[in-house]
Amino acid sequence: MTALHHRTLIGRATIGDQLRRHARTQPGKTAFIGYTADGTRHVTTYGELDLLANRFANLLLDRGVRRGDRVASMARNSVDVVVAYYGTLKVGAAFTGINVLYRAPEVKHQLEHAEPTVVVVDPEFADIVDSVAPGHTTVMRYGTELLANSPDIEPELDVDENDVAMVIYTSGTEAAPKGVMIPHRNFLISTAPAWSWGLRTGPEDTWLFVMPFHTIAGLGSMTTLTLMGATLVLPATVDPTQSLKIIADEKISVIAQTPTFYLALARNAGFGSAAVGQVRRCLTYGGQVSPHTITAWAGAAPEAIWGTYWGQSELSQLGSVGWFTSLDDIPDGDASWIGKPVTHLEIKVVDADGNPSEIGELLCRTPSVMLGYFKDEAKTAEVFAGGWVHTGDMVRTDADGNLFFYDRMKDMIKSGGMNISSQEVERAIHTHPDVLRAAVVGMPDAYWSEAVTAFVIAAEGTTPDPAAIIEHCRTTLASYKAPKAVHVVTELPVDPQGKILKRELRALAIVEETV
After folding, report:
1. Which residues, 6+ apart, have CB-to-CB distance to 359 below 8 Å?
2. What DSSP designation does 205 have?
3. CA-based angle 511:513:514, to the nearest 5?
């Protein structure tokens, strides 16, 4: 080993290095508590996690993986995936996750785009991956035997803080998913410090962790929390009954999930203080928490505080955060509030011409900004135009620096020549007593161009009247913003995190008579 390499190791800052430090300073601290489908509980300490990651790193080297390569994973959340992630980073390769809901053509597209040297797969998804994996890609199956003969000594390799640590594929709502390249340095100098202050996280926390590892919410949060030395509990399922039991048994203190998840727990028969009374922070993103949900949780976990936050893959998850205990704490009483920018984020809000505006597109600068989109220089240049990240999100800002999420630019409804925020209409519908959950989209219309169309889930014991909901909206919104049609449904289509899939709502074949 050269003197230069030794000198590099002295001051190197990579994500894998921090795991090694935890293994030396707190080897017995619980890193993960994993549950299998049959309810079996398994504890992994930081010392054990580092040893297993070293074995995986050596296994990858044996399979030909080198610095700058990519390793893909298609699996449900488990400690095995975390081991693969840290092992990948220790050899200087980048980790990318594949959505377990993907079908063969979608898996094929991501593998062909990412060009991983190795794909690691849960046995239940092996047939799909085997059928579409390129011939030059090695496919391995997760399992206890995978690391049996691999050395547990960490390989001493050249890995740099500017190397890509993860490639996160966006949801692909409007076009093919894009691969967001995120380097090690983002988490070490920006994302993890800012979230530790902004989200009040630390090593004493025990998290119920259900965010899937193929997303920035899942992989990014797991990275931040393990860098801090927290404890993460991985359920085998997001089933409300099982989740509530785990929350009680493991004395979960922090939960981070979409509003849909909190609502599902609150509607479960097992919900109450015995299950969630010890929860201290409820973090939510990707939508608005309904008044029904806040009321239910206030009764069951009176000491819990809500945290609303916003972030993006392009910013390595970094964004804004705000805290409240009731709707009365929210500035202006506006449920679209997403807090204020965290310490490492600089923002400005601009109109369509790029001029400062109270309502407009949110632009950002931060040390956590992505390196770019993998194999897409044109799209990268477009998003980075003018030296700012163009988020594609419309927000409102006030004199105190608060941010209020207006809508995704692609979800803005253009009806009768007017721009309408789908989320503003959703907030109005949520105030109707017969509505538990609502989603609003623009549907093609020969007269209006797009017709404001709502999909609602009934509150328990009610039968919503579409005409009454429309009239309710007209009392609080300009008439052109009120829905032209309301459809009562039993559920809304959501992704693995619980975010509503508006593209699927638009594609629904409506068989009900509209009003």
Report:
1. 349, 351, 394, 395, 396, 406
2. -
3. 115
pTM score, whole prediction: 0.84
CB neighbours of residue 340 within 10 Å: 17
275-310 burial, b at 16+ Cβ within 10 Å, e below that, comes to: bbebbebbbbbbbbbbebbbebbeebbeebebbbbb
Within 10 angstroms of residue 200's Cβ, the number of other Cβ atoms is 16
What are the pLDDT digits (tens) for 263-292?
899 999 999 999 999 999 999 987 778 888
Distance CA 266, CA 458 (A): 15
Mean pLDDT of 315-319: 95
What angle, rounded to 10 degrees, do the helices at 221-228 and 15-25 form?
40
Q: What residues are paired with 331 via a beta bridge?
A: none
Range 36-41, long-range pairs (CB < 8 A, 24+ positions): 36/236, 37/236, 37/237
Q: pLDDT tens digits for 319-356?
A: 999 999 988 899 988 878 999 999 999 999 999 899 99
CB atoms within 10 A of CB 251: 10
Contacts of 30 (CB under 8 A, 6+ apart): 43, 44, 45, 46, 231
Task: Give Cβ neighbours of residue 476 (< 8 Å, ≥ 6 apart).
Answer: 428, 431
Q: What is the pLDDT of residues 240-260, one digit of tens each?
A: 999 999 999 999 999 998 888
Name the nearest CA neighbour of 397 among 310, 315, 481.
310
- 254-257 and 206-208 beta bridge pairing: parallel
